[in-house]
Amino acid sequence: MKKIVFLIITFLLIFILPLLGSLAKWGGLPPGYGTFPVQEAVQDPGFNALYFALACIVALFIMVFYLFPRVFGFRKTLVAAEVQRSEVRFPFWFWAALPVLVICWFIMWARLSVLSLLEPYTFVPLWWSFICIIDGIVYKRNHGVSLLSKKPQIMQLLAVVSCFSWFAFEYLNFFVMENWYYPNKEIFSDFGNIFWFSLSYTTVLPAIIEWYLLMLTIPALRDRYSNGPKLHLNKPTLIVMYILGLGLALAMGYFPFELFWVLWVALVPMLSAAMGLIRMWTPFTPIRQGNWSPMLLIGLATVCNGFFWELWNFGSEWFNEGIPLNPNYWKYSVPYLDKFHIFSQMPLLGYFGYLFFGVNCWVIWLTAAYVFKFNPDFDLVQRRDKAREI
């Protein structure tokens, strides 16, 4: 029981510490606090060459780590030949989701006035159909095994936790001066916004996890990071990480522009270190045996999903002459780094934030599972390193 209490206190501190820092900064609540959906309240400081250069160095290191793991001590893993099995067809939900995806995509991007009344309602069916399509691909590649076919209850729990966890990120967004905001606040009523955005937030974790499971069906990718350096963090190191996370969370509220990136980072040392101190499994636990795949692939899965987040979001404005009718349409206000866009609102360096966001999502999912006593294992293959204490 003491372990769960410690975990709950840590989770609550994630919300309390930025608030305390912000109260000290502004002498009250930060500008724009409490408005939902989030609106831009303060103009960001703009581009900073030094800050951008430092961020590029970090991004370059991450790219080299992913692309050339053997430089960092990873060894090639011999992939056992897969047993030949009979071909499995795509499941019915894959085929049912395809037309829904196409229709919603078309309505979101089309400039047809006759469809304008439907555009505000495309986001949720678009993303849930996309999730079903990825699950169908996993089902086919995994010989009839997928999240929807074998663990539908996990999908339901993922949706619920996803909803509440993204509301948590929306709350923390107030303390970094609205890094993202939703300009189409007036499409729905206040109640309509809460209801619709709640439905929309259910898609975040399921989509990321489906991408992760898809990557596990690719042996070369699944095993690429499974035989790396063994890293065991002792108790003093975990305590230092925990305290560092607490300090960053507090400082984020006081330095909302300089430390805006802490929104995506502080959760990892705080919650992961807390779980490590009470001997609970995290995506970092397999690193003790040299298996970095869970941590690295969940980040990569989130980047892949992030591409589609940004693609559909950008298109809903681009193909509507800058006046999207999509209430979920968002814009960014990122200090210091807003340079070089491929096609989307997101600056190029912003995509590296998705790597950390994926780990955050998994850690929050585990926190919910440990507190509410349900099995969080969404992996479809039993592995020796998956033993957990719950």
What is the tally of helical segments? 14
The outline comes out as globular
Q: Work out the helicity level.
A: 55-70%
- The CA-CA distance between the termini, in Å, is 11 Å
Mean of all residue-level pLDDT scores: 91
Helix/strand class: mainly alpha
Description:
Helices cover 56% and strands 1% of the residues. With 390 residues, it is an all-alpha fold. The chain has a two-stranded antiparallel sheet with strand order 1-2. Mean pLDDT is 91; it is low at 382-390. The N and C termini lie close together (11 Å). Helix 1 packs antiparallel against helix 12 (267-277) and helix 4 packs parallel to helix 8 (204-216). The protein is globular.
How do the strands and helices of this protein lay out in sequence?
Blueprint (H helix, E strand, L loop, with lengths): L1 H25 L22 H19 L24 H18 L13 H19 L5 H4 L1 H22 L6 E2 L8 H12 L2 H13 L2 H4 L12 H20 L7 H4 L1 H11 L15 H26 L12 E2 L20 H20 L18
Antiparallel strand pairs: 1-2
Helix pairs in contact: 1-10, 1-12, 3-4, 4-8, 6-7, 6-14, 8-13, 10-12, 12-14, 13-14
